[in-house]
Amino acid sequence: LMQKTLFYLVCLVKSCWSIFVSKIMQFLLFNTSCLFC
User: What is the value of pTM for the model shown?
Assistant: First the structure.
């Protein structure tokens, strides 16, 4: 049971992290493109 919970947590963290990273990347891309406007 503990192992399954841990696995679930790791998956949750990974998905949250990937969403977070993609948001940051979009934000940075937007900002750098605006710098060159």
Answer: 0.55
Burial 6-20 (b: 16+ CB within 10 A, else e): eeeeeeeeeeeeeee
Tokens, residue 8: 């679930």
Length of the chain in terms of residues written: 37
Q: Is the Cα dihedral 26, 27, 28, 33 positive or negative? A: positive
> Each residue of 11-23: pLDDT tens digit?
999 998 999 999 9
Q: How far apart are CA 1 and CA 31, in angstroms?
A: 45
